[in-house]
Amino acid sequence: MKFEQIGLEGLTVELSHLKDALSELGFILAGQWDYDRVTFDKKFEHKGDVFYLRVQGYCIEGDVGGRYALIKLLTPILGKHYYPHGVEYGEDEHFPAVIVESSEKLLKRAKESIESLTV
User: Fold this and answer.
1) SS (H, E, C) 43-111
2) CA distances from 114 to 71, 85, 101 (A)
3) Each residue of 87-103: b (16+ CB within 10 Å) or e?
4) Strand, coil or helix: 41
């Protein structure tokens, strides 16, 4: 499921500011990066199912492993985890309303935080 209406897609932000803004909301970067891309995850558990809200971006200046990286954000997505296969994002997936609503609230807060850092 894509969250196109939030307005995060296309924002650019320095990686250290992005880490600060998203970690404050419970997102983790962990090892999900390479020198050109980053993925921040927020894990949700609901009635035995696991969901991941993902904020992804790619480097447009510098590199993720270096001292400076300017990240351009992609459309946030919500996926359902299936063990042992991984996360599915398809349109035919069912996402509980409580997870979707929580995701929207978090993403709106993330956008506000990111915009306050980039001004």
Assistant:
1) EEEECCEEEEEEEEEEEEEECCCCCCEEEEECCCEEEEEECCCEEECCCCCCCCHHHHHHHHHHHHHHH
2) 11, 33, 20
3) beeeeeeebeeebeebb
4) strand
Q: Model pTM?
A: 0.90
Residue 99 contacts residue 15 (beta carbons within 8 Å): no
Q: Which residue type does 23 have?
A: S
Intra-chain end-to-end CA distance of the chain, in Å: 29
Cβ 29 vs Cβ 38: under 8 Å: yes
The residues of the chain scoring below 70 in pLDDT are 32, 118-119
